[in-house]
Please model this.
Amino acid sequence: MRYLAFLALFLVLLAACQPVMPATEMRTTSPEPMPPSVSAEPSAPAPDGEPALTAGFKPTGKLLVDATTQYIEYNQADFDAARAAGKIVYLEFWAAWCPFCQRLEPLIRESIANLDDPGVVAFRVNYDNSADLQKKYNVIYQHTHIVLKTDGSVSWKSLDTNWNDELFRSEIQKAKGG
Model:
């Protein structure tokens, strides 16, 4: 009887994390780099004593972590501005109803807060409201993590449901060319 209860719980959790997009719509090729739509200089030392944190990029959206590496609720204007400013971009797709996303959220926030890199901007992307972005980066699961190079190409994409801070930092360095 316990086995059946465990199996039922497992199936419910598994069903909650299934893709929304039918398999016939999945892309199999890497997305093309998206040209920045906002013109700005790449990150550089800040002029006139302005903190390096805001050099070349000043978000207007909701900050989830306001540290040297900012974590922002995704919005197109900030995404475009970060890209135009020459930032490495981390996209965390999540859904409020996803148990994996709920478990990973505090770990991701901590990693971003401790990254201490003004050349990186992180965005939390609401899976339920991001069909265009999902299609662009071939995202079929809500617990998808993506690192974009400064040219907009995908450097790293993961569906891992366990967070590894060392791997995250390593993938950020790879995106920088290191």
